[in-house]
Amino acid sequence: MPKTTFLNLNDKKKKKILNTLIKYFANYPYEKVDIEDVAKESKVSKGSMYQYFLDKKDMYFYAINESIRKMFEIAENIDFEKINVFEYLEKSFESNWKLLSKFPNEYLLLERAIFGYDIPFKEEINKLFLKKFRETLKIIIIQSQKSGFIRDDISIEVILTYMEGAIMNIKRYIIEYAKSIGVSSKDLSYDLIKNIQKDFVKVLKNGLSKDYTVI
């Protein structure tokens, strides 16, 4: 976390440094981010950056934490107590799109941090983001079982593991699809992502068999 010297800066300067850190960590592999470049764009000295933060890792996690905070700020209007698990998935995709539209670098940073294959500190990042995601999903699964919206003859942990894996993999699919056509996921259209999301929720609801009963 930032040192007191950073927290004592005026808001405009803090915002400039934060946005620059997010921009660089979002668009370049961690090991290729040069803090001297960040400092120059932030209009501070490289030495000052190390007065504001303990080290490069500290800067990286500050950028990630702030990006996660913005993501959950966008999602905070969702009343998780009153929706079923499928509505949650739909609203979750909407929140992701809003983050992508409003804060593209924050979105790309989280995408790179969570799904990147060459990113360091994966275990720590999982504790920051995936733990909270899993806790929220578990609450909604329990509520959906109690309300009779989903089956209660399957254990909560099995459903949670299945859905967590499915959600993360559909997001990975979107990233890989974008790469396959030579663009970033932020360049994909809303309609395309929305249609992928609809198909995803449809499969979760009804399975792959032709002989299904629509929920």
Descriptive labels:
215 residues, mainly alpha, Tetracycline Repressor, domain 2, elongated
Kindly name the structural category: mainly alpha
- Please identify, by name, the CATH architecture: Orthogonal Bundle
Q: What value does the average pLDDT take? A: 88
Helix and strand element order: HHHHHHHHHHH
Beta strand %: under 5%
Radius of gyration: 20 Å
Verbal overview:
Helices cover 71% and strands 0% of the residues. It is mainly alpha-helical. The chain has one domain: Orthogonal Bundle (Tetracycline Repressor, domain 2). The chain is elongated.
What's a quick, concise take on this entry?
By secondary structure, the chain is mainly α. It contains eleven helices and no strands.
Write the layout of secondary structure elements.
Layout: H1 4-7, H2 11-27, H3 35-42, H4 46-52, H5 56-75, H6 85-102, H7 104-115, H8 122-128, H9 130-146, H10 156-180, H11 190-206
